[in-house]
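Today's session is about reading a structure prediction critically. Students often jump straight to the picture, but the first step is always the sequence itself: look for stretches that repeat, for charged clusters, for runs of hydrophobic residues. Only then move on to the predicted structure, which in these notes is written as discrete structure tokens rather than atom positions. Here is the chain we will use throughout the hour.
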Amino acid sequence: MAQYAQTLTDAEINTYANTILQNADLMLALHDFFEGEPSHESCAPVCHQLFDFYTSGPRQLRQFAVDLLPSMISCYLTAASRNQVKNTNEINEITSKLKGFENCANSDLV
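Below is the predicted structure for this chain, in token form.
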């Protein structure tokens, strides 16, 4: 995403961000992905992309990543209840990083 974004204008990035946020089929597919107990190999690139979306700047991409947090947390908790957290390390990592970002953002407001 970072390399791709370097070649786009701000208007193109905003158009892409709006398109992705409004793509109900993609959102549904990702919710299904996390509910389907993904393997470590398939989960890692998805979580890394969502983290890139969250930190890339456009509000719409950030919102897209945040909208998937309930499904990611549910996936992690399901795996934890089955002693399979190894498969969801990336989910734990992204949720921890997002919490850290939010804590930093909130402390800047105080």
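Discussion point for the tutorial: The CA atoms of residues 78 and 84 lie 8 Å apart.
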